[in-house]
Design goal:
globular, single chain, 13 helices, binds 3-hydroxybutanoyl-coenzyme A, Ferritin
Length: about 325
């Protein structure tokens, strides 16, 4: 008898939950939610946070080699923002009942993913422009939609993060514009960075919708309000005119504007490369994980000191 009452209760609560989602209401941490919804959000948010923190590494590589004090200051500000985005999203993920230390252990053990894009090397200063313009540009397309998602803490975190991403995107585009007005060597450096970062930026939006095992749940529960392919298309449509405006060529000879659909048609993405990178076999996966593991170990004394201070003052 009890089992039956519990089941009926769960069915009623799931129906109420689905009605809230359908009515466009946000779900807050203290609201009842299906365990699967909680797990999906925890997966997505923790991996998003990991991406922000690992994403500091490729750019950190160029802090000491920025071409001017102003460029160094701007890059430093951007990298500090990314750290804040990571901590912000870890805090949002913790509202789902998992401590960030557990999420970070999943990253450091290689169990959790982070964005494929950060497993590519940054070979010269133009890469700082390409990352800010393309990678943060892709993040803006994704995150402005996430700012309307059904989970309150995630949506609210995106509002502040998108404001900072806009600064990241503009400073990156400005680096590319300045290079394209520079010497032939600088123009070639910018075009080379464009060639290396364009396709991996398209992969940031995930596999094609037909190969996306999580999108069904996430779309049904209005965590994802647009599909992987729709967001990818939106990014391409927005970015191609920007490239043309500064004389950069998109490395895709199949790219073509379709006046009927009012979208750019584009070539086939190398999904074998994508799957290889997310399986841990990208150019920099091992380096990035080692850097994160080393940084975590070096920071152990800070965590211990903070815990000791907190314990001492909790007793006082
Ligand atoms: N890199 C690594 N893994 C990826 C990926 C990518 N670009 N795209 C998809 N995957 C993984 C998914 O995590 C999933 O694996 P899992 O089930 O083990 O977690 C698998 O591939 C199948 O993909 P799905 O499409 O089914 O997964 P999702 O529905 O979660 O969609 C996503 C993937 C579009 C990345 C989605 O998770 C998302 O929008 N996340 C929030 C935004 C985000 O994480 N952005 C990362 C970049 S952060 C950034 O750019 C920082 C900025 O400041 C520069």
């Amino acid at each position: 008898m009890n089992q039956q009452i519990i089941q009926e209760d769960d069915i009623r609560r799931e129906e109420e939950f689905n009605a809230r989602i359908a009515a466009g209401k946000t779900i807050e941490p203290k609201d009842w939610m299906p365990e699967r919804y909680r797990r999906q959000l925890l997966r997505m948010m923790s991996q998003h946070a990991h991406s922000e923190v690992v994403g500091m590494l490729p750019e950190g590589n160029w802090l000491t080699r920025a071409p001017s004090l102003m460029r160094k200051a701007v890059l430093l500000a951007k990298i500090q923002d990314e750290a804040g985005h990571g901590l912000y999203i870890y805090s949002g993920a913790e509202t789902l009942g998992t401590d960030r230390s557990e999420m970070i252990d999943q990253l450091l053990s290689g169990k959790a993913k982070y964005s494929s894009i950060f497993n590519y090397p940054t070979l010269n200063w133009a890469d700082m422009g390409a990352i800010g313009w393309l990678v943060d540009g892709a993040a803006i397309v994704n995150q402005t939609v996430l700012a309307k998602c059904s989970y309150g803490p995630y949506a609210r975190a995106m509002v502040r993060i998108c404001k900072e991403e806009n600064f990241h995107n503009k400073q990156g585009y400005q680096i590319m514009a300045v290079l394209m007005r520079g010497t032939k060597a600088q123009q070639e450096m910018a075009q080379d960075a464009m060639n290396r970062w364009w396709w991996p930026s398209l992969m940031m939006f995930g596999p094609p919708d037909k190969d996306s095992p999580n999108s069904g749940d996430l779309m049904r529960w209005k965590v994802k309000l647009q599909s992987n392919d729709d967001l990818r298309q939106r990014f391409i449509d927005r970015t191609v005119p920007q490239a043309e405006a500064i004389g950069l060529r998109i490395p895709d000879d199949k790219l073509k504007w379709n006046p009927q659909t009012r979208h750019y048609e584009f070539g086939e993405i190398n999904w074998e490369e994508f799957n290889n990178v997310i399986r841990g076999n990208g150019p920099c996966n091992k380096l990035r994980l080692k850097q994160r593991r080393d940084a975590h170990a070096e920071g152990n004394w800070v965590r211990e000191a903070a815990a000791a201070y907190a314990a001492k003052h909790a007793r006082a």
